[in-house]
Amino acid sequence: MLMLKNLKQLIFSVEMKKKKRERNNNIILLQASYELFIGLNVILWRKRHRLFSLISAVSGCLLLLLFAFSVFTPPPTATEHFLSHHLSAVKKTEVVESNFDMVFQVPASGGTLGRDLWSSSQSKFYYGCSNASKSFQSADMKTHPNRYLMIATSGGLNQQRTGIIDAVVVAYILNATLVIPKLDQHSYWKDTSGFAEIFNVDWFISSLSRDVEIIKELPRNEGKAWIPRSMRVPRKCNSKCYQIRVLPVLNKKHAVELTKFDYRLSNRLETDLQKLRCRVNYQALRFTDSILELGKILVERMRMKAKQFIALHLRFEPDMLAFSGCYYGGGEKERGELGALRKRWKTLHVSNPEKVRRHGRCPLTPEEVGLMLRALGFGSDVHIYVASGEVYRGEETLAPLKALFPNFHSKETIATKEELAPFSSFSGRMAALDYIVCDESDVFVTNNNGNMARILAGRRRYFGHKPTIRPNAKKLYKLFLDRNNMTWDEFASKVRTYQIGFMGEPKEVKTGKGEFHENPDSCICQANGLKTPQEDDESSKERKEGAGVSDEQQQQQQQPLEEDPDWTDIFYLDKELPDVITKQEHPEVEGFFSD
């Protein structure tokens, strides 16, 4: 109370000084106007009253305008805003500094939100479904002899994974035999691993044997090697596109290799082809036994530390930040360091960091991820497994996140050097270990919208809608910038509001929207006999609105429609990928940003 009284007295004294200063200004203005009036009259007297009537009118109007301005100008409103702003701060018992700025205090506890942070309340209503329909032709019925398709993938492990998935579907479209895809060994990652050193080849071939014929290498033609025709198709090429562009060449040359095969297949496909995508992704692509074994060990060690844990895919490499053109408040030092890296790509336009961040294209900082998680309800006792490459400025950048979540782990901290030795020289195999732990985590979080984030988001939807938190970067960036001007409760409330629709719940993304690997909606079915809470609400509303409808009509409304979940209507809208790299001609760095 004493503090409030002193604050009111201070504000009152400020207002009194303002009013006194305004009265003095008014007197000065009146005196100046009067002197101007007298001066003009003297001049007119000397000029023997020439134009006396006109000048007198002008001077009189000027005097009246000055007087009206001084009288009717409203007082400043800043003081009132200042007072109300800080009285609310006093009521909330926040610490008030001499400049009256409120202190942004982050609690150690996540608080009680009245909901389960570790599971989706609606996951029981949905399940993954990717079986082929009865009309889907098997490989032995449709594969043409002497028609071989080869694929050269592009990018990091997860981008290559999308290429492998789509390669199987393209082989089916072309009635061709697929040769085991070649992995990218020449991009930024410089990983010499072949397909068989990351994925289980025999399982891949056998599990897809009814869908597509797959062989390990191109056979010889009458004792001679086939010479495949190398070609590249446009991004988002649909079934008709492949039949027009590739099939004639395949019929003539018998062997075709599609290069840089990443995102070369459209989202807009018939349902059976989408389900084939899911069978490849969620059943056929299995890591090698050695990768699976160590991945299982890493998960078990995390479970020994905590019953439930978060996995964070953190992308904050210096090269990626430089290429994106983002700025994180590090002053001239940051601009100099990232600017020097950015010069590697001479054709890049001058960056506009504010525009890039405003559009949600900048990865969240480790600190921002920590604040988001705390606002969502995760306390400092939660264990976090972090999957990341080199972090810009290393420990200095990670320190705020570690302060918020001290139980900070990675594959390097929970596995020995000896255990990691067979994998540490190969970025793809190391990424596969992170993939396994992130997939098995109770909550998966990402600070970006890269390939691993999208692939895992789709996988976790398919296998039970396990919580997957993607930051709503377009909304959150302003909140992070302005966080010191609000209380923690206000900040946390806004974070929870902005993150609605970005938490991995069912039906968050409209059917046909987004990348299919992130939202495999034609492979997710609703359990029979179960109604979601939304459907119960809609049914209740319909019953109320149908009070005046006949009994026969009400019965027709209440009867559920019998639909085959394998034949969901799909309306995919093709669009450019949101990543900055797809809008630039920089093939030498595209692999780096592909993860």
UniProtKB/TrEMBL annotation:
* UniProt entry keywords in alphabetical sequence: Carbohydrate metabolism, Fucose metabolism, Glycosyltransferase, Membrane, Transferase, Transmembrane, Transmembrane helix
Give the transmembrane region(s).
27-44, 51-72
What ranges does the record list as Basic and acidic residues composition bias?
A: 510-520
Region of interest: Disordered: 510-568
The family database entries (CDD domains) matched by this protein are listed as: O-FucT_plant (cd11299)
What does the similarity note say?
Belongs to the glycosyltransferase GT106 family.
Q: What is the protein's given name?
A: O-fucosyltransferase family protein
Query: To which species is this protein native?
Result: Gossypium arboreum
